[in-house]
Design brief:
Layout lengths: L2 H16 L4 H14 L1 H12 L2 H4 L15
Amino acid sequence: MTLLDIQELLSNAFQLDLEQGVAWMNDDYSAKWQKQNPLIYDAIGQILDLDAEAAGPLQEYHEIDWDSED
């Protein structure tokens, strides 16, 4: 998975989660969500603003096994 893939995945997920079907609801909900989650919003913005070409290849993605006792 490349940085560009991650940015596209995150952008799509973010937009779809905020999609309510009515423009004014989107704006109101988006503003409320940003205010309630400023650190997450900032992190998403920084990831989406990264220059995927300049960053070079990322490490191989490995899913974390949260149930593991290691």
